[in-house]
């Protein structure tokens, strides 16, 4: 019989820490009662009593349950694991009114479902099946307290949040099903007949439990998806995997960092003195690779969690506080399910489509890190902080450093910052331990790297061992600790086409000195590539990546390469760039940022920026910007964007990949035109075959322009920007297109103009949505479409939204996301259907809350006082009634003939029922007699004589 109890208890203990087991195993019922009395006394002193009698019924019911169980088990050791968690949860929750109120309600509901069992003692003694019922009760009570401990044993920071407490006690809905177990049969004479029924109840119990778990799992999944949509964070895993892949051929590279004393101290769980560490070094020193080594080491420890992020320059998804905070919250959520109810509550209370508040981000990070750091050690690692603008990194540093320094659990939260030695970062981290990477730190890694590449070069060009040795020595010494320098030099040498070219690059006067020369040599080789096709493609890629208004997805780059302006079609066959031409490395992610020449420069600092960014003479920014603008305009003039195109033809175009570039072109054609304004000359806007931009603007305006637009509709600031273009052929068309498009997009979240393009976009997306659900789509056809449109075909219709181009895996995810746009004000009551389908305005939500979920405390001063019915005092003799008892007493004196108030005037025998009557008699009868005889009535007052 005891086996069922022991199995349930063993499962419960697995979730407890050693400290909790020791604390709970000796707790008694008397200790629980004492704790409740202390809580009550404390609340009484603070004048915040909360009706603790609600827990009385549970204690009484479970005390009887304990007495019955002890008869069978001959021990009370299993019951202490009910009293211990109960005592602990009550003590912790008592600090926060709402959480405490919810917990007391939970115990009250539990008591309603537990019968008083002592009256059925004989029934349980005589039947083993009924003992199984007791075991089921015990298991359910443990499940309830396990859910409660998830909240209250984590962190007081979360225990104060009512939404989280409510989410954990929803198990009561399941507990209600247990009520009928012992009430099934209460008659001893019917025990034998009830055995089968009890067995049926046991099966129902198991089925109900499974159903409840399935519902809970589905609700958890829905909340998690809603949260991830709200956070809309960048996943750092691909960045980490890319950094790790860079070491694939050199597995030992970077491992030396783990032997540094400061790193060992930061990683050591026993060391509490180094919670903050700053690694800094020169640009190109391989800091990101070293960071990946440290992250990998942290992730090996299953008893700790690792939160990390790789910042990227000029990437709005990776270069600011909000982006980093969102990513950290997403990782915390994935690694700590306990945070889900709290974060979801904050999400629906924010009434916003995404997390955009710095203040809220800070609050969420503080609560979440404080929560997880109590139960497990957390390593927080930020690489490339100097990639962020100074203001953003100041906000990020001040927030994270403050969280680490204020944590209640020293050593449980550790922060590692990796960056260049920037003055502002150094100033904010002046009190932190720091590790400076010198040129000698990675010398051995650079030599190993150089040796591997030198062997590749030797095999390709069949050079002597002396040449190989010379390459290794020249690169290792010239790198001066800059790993990126070695990479650029060696890839450039390997990319030469002839041995003579290789020797020419190795000559002392030609061999690059410093990073800038090495980088410039790579770019020069791109433009001097003898293969004209490869050179042209590489130039186009460099231009697009330098001028793109957002990181292009790789399928968009493939589509751009495949666009044929002359034939006005898109031909993927023969135009694939799966193998990136020339010296550019192949793509390793779906975004163009995977190329080292992306706008997120591979190294930081003034020298790197001068060599790599917009000032590069080889990439003519204005020229490439104009080419992109013309390509977007011309592409949108293709036959596939004609609004009169029949649906079957549109479907054909979809299947052939014609719309692979549409989401970029439809949104950003106007941005490219605006970027060009200052650099344009009047000749650039001529409407002639020799002027690509002018003729493209003319044709685009003719097809998609709003002809009713007037010059007076153009804002003055836009005209001022175009004063140097006065007299140009297509100036008016340019101004009308820009002003009308910007005006409409500022007022409309969805793409409504040009209307013709909106129509085509909707038809294309509708067809792709249909295809995504089609069972007739073969694997080959789906892979082909994935090549054209990426893996997520279902998109958000709002052009400013990240998911306009990012997309969703299914319609359900998209529809839930749209609700955040259209009806962002969600009900916070977990049992209300409006927690899924919100309201358009805050006013509507407040009205709903007032009508459907009123707060009783809010109405305390609004209800009028209830007038008491007048109390009637009735005479036993005659039945007369009076509102006051004193009037009844006077009345009863009349019946008894008692007149206690006698006149005090000498010789007067009058008596009265009331003192008032006696005084009135004295004033009216004896005052005149007293005046006449010169005497005074005892009730009179002397009147002073007048002069």
From TrEMBL:
Keywords recorded for this protein, A-Z: Coiled coil, Metal-binding, Repeat, Zinc, Zinc-finger
Gene3D superfamilies, per database record: Classic Zinc Finger, P-loop containing nucleotide triphosphate hydrolases
UniProt keyword annotation of Ribosomal protein present: no
Taxon lineage: Eukaryota, Fungi, Dikarya, Ascomycota, Pezizomycotina
Keyword Acyltransferase in record: no
Protein name: C2H2-type domain-containing protein
InterPro entries, per database record: DUF7708, NACHT_NTPase, NPHP3-like_N, P-loop_NTPase, Znf_C2H2_sf, Znf_C2H2_type
Pfam families to which the protein is assigned, alphabetical: DUF7708, NPHP3_N
Ranges annotated as biased composition (Polar residues): 927-947
Superkingdom field: Eukaryota
Domain NACHT: 275-420
SUPFAM superfamilies registered for this protein in UniProt: beta-beta-alpha zinc fingers, P-loop containing nucleoside triphosphate hydrolases
Any coiled-coil regions, as ranges: 191-218
Positions of region (Disordered): 919-947
Any one GO molecular-function label of the UniProt entry: zinc ion binding
Domain C2H2-type: 873-900, 901-927
């Amino acid at each position: 019989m005891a086996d069922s109890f022991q199995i349930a208890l063993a499962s419960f203990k697995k979730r407890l820490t050693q400290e909790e087991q020791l604390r709970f195993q000796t707790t008694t019922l008397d200790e629980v009662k004492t704790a409740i009395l202390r809580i009550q006394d404390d609340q009484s002193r603070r004048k915040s009593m909360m009706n603790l009698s609600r827990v009385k019924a549970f204690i009484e019911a479970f005390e009887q349950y304990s007495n019955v169980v002890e008869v069978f088990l001959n021990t009370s050791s299993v019951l202490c694991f009910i009293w211990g968690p109960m005592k602990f949860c009550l003590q912790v929750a008592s600090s926060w009114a709402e959480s405490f109120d919810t917990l007391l309600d939970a115990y009250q509901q539990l008591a309603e479902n537990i019968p008083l069992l002592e009256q059925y003692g004989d029934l349980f003694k005589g039947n083993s099946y009924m003992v199984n019922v007791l075991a089921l009760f015990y298991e359910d009570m443990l499940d309830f307290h396990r859910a409660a401990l998830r909240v209250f044993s984590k962190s007081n920071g979360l225990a104060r949040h009512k939404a989280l407490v409510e989410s954990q006690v929803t198990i009561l809905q399941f507990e209600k099903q247990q009520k009928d177990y012992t009430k099934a049969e209460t008659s001893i004479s019917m025990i034998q007949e009830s055995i089968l029924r009890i067995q049926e109840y046991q099966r129902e119990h198991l089925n109900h439990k499974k159903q409840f778990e399935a519902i809970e799992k589905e609700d958890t999944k829905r909340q998690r998806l809603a949260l991830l949509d709200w956070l809309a964070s960048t996943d750092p895993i691909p960045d980490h995997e890319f950094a790790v892949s860079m070491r694939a051929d050199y597995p030992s590279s970077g491992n030396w960092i783990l032997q540094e004393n400061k790193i060992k101290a930061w990683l050591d769980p026993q060391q509490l003195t180094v919670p903050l560490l700053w690694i800094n070094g020169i640009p190109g020193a391989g800091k990101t690779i070293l960071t990946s080594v440290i992250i990998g080491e942290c992730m090996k420890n299953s008893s700790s969690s690792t939160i990390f992020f790789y910042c990227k320059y000029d990437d709005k998804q990776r270069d600011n506080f909000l982006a980093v905070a969102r990513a950290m919250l997403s990782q915390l959520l994935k690694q700590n399910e306990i945070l889900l109810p709290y974060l979801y509550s904050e999400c629906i209370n924010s009434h916003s489509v995404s997390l955009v508040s710095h203040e809220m981000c800070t609050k969420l990070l503080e609560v979440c890190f404080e929560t997880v750091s109590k139960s497990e050690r957390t390593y927080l690692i930020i690489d490339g902080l100097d990639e962020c603008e100074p203001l953003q990194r100041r906000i990020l540093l001040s927030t994270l450093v403050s969280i680490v320094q204020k944590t209640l659990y020293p050593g449980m939260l550790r922060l590692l910052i990796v960056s260049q030695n920037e003055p502002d970062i150094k100033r904010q981290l002046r009190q932190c331990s720091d590790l400076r990477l010198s040129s000698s730190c990675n010398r051995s890694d650079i030599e190993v790297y150089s040796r591997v590449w030198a062997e590749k070069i030797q095999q390709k060009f069949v050079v002597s061992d002396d040449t190989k040795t010379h390459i290794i020595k020249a690169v290792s010494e010239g790198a001066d600790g800059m790993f990126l320098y070695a990479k650029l030099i060696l890839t450039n040498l390997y990319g030469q086409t002839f041995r003579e070219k290789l020797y020419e690059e190795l000559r002392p006067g030609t061999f690059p000195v410093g990073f800038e020369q090495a980088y410039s040599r790579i770019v020069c080789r791109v433009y001097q590539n003898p293969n004209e096709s490869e050179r042209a493609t590489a130039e186009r890629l460099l231009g697009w990546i330098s001028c793109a208004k957002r990181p292009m997805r790789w399928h968009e780059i493939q589509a751009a390469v495949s666009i044929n302006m002359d034939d006005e079609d898109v031909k993927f066959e023969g135009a694939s760039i799966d193998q990136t031409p020339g010296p550019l490395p192949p793509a390793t992610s779906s975004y163009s940022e995977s190329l080292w020449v992306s706008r997120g420069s591979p190294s930081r600092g003034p020298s790197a920026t001068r060599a790599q960014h917009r000032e590069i003479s080889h990439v003519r920014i204005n020229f490439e910007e104009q080419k992109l603008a013309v390509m977007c305009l011309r592409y949108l003039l293709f036959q596939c964007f004609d609004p009169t195109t029949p649906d079957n033809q549109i479907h054909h175009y979809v299947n052939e990949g014609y719309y692979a570039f549409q989401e970029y072109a439809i949104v950003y054609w106007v941005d490219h035109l605006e970027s060009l304004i200052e650099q344009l000359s009047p000749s650039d806007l001529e409407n002639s075959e020799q002027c690509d931009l002018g003729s493209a603007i003319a044709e685009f305006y003719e097809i998609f322009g709003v002809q009713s637009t007037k010059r007076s509709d153009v804002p003055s600031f836009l005209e001022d920007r175009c004063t140097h273009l006065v007299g140009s052929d297509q100036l008016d068309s340019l101004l009308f297109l820009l002003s009308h498009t910007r005006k409409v997009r500022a007022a409309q979240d969805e793409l409504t103009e040009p209307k013709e393009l909106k129509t085509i976009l909707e038809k294309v997306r509708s067809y792709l949505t249909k295809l995504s659900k089609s069972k007739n789509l073969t694997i080959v056809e789906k892979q082909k479409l994935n090549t054209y449109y990426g893996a997520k075909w279902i998109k958000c219709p709002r052009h400013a939204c990240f998911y306009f181009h990012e997309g969703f895996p299914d319609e359900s995810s998209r529809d839930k996301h749209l609700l955040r746009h259209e009806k962002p004000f969600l009900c916070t009551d977990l049992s209300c259907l409006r927690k899924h389908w919100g309201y358009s305005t805050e006013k509507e939500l407040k009205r709903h809350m007032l009508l459907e979920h009123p707060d009783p405390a809010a109405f305390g001063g609004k209800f009028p006082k209830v007038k008491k019915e007048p109390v009637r005092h009735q005479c036993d003799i005659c039945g007369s009634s009076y509102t006051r008892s004193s009037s009844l007493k006077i009345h009863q004196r009349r019946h008894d003939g008692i007149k206690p108030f006698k006149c005090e005037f000498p010789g007067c025998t009058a008596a009265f029922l009331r003192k008032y009557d006696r005084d009135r008699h004295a004033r009216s009868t004896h005052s005149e007699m007293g005046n006449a005889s010169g005497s005074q009535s005892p009730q009179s007052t002397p009147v002073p004589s007048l002069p």
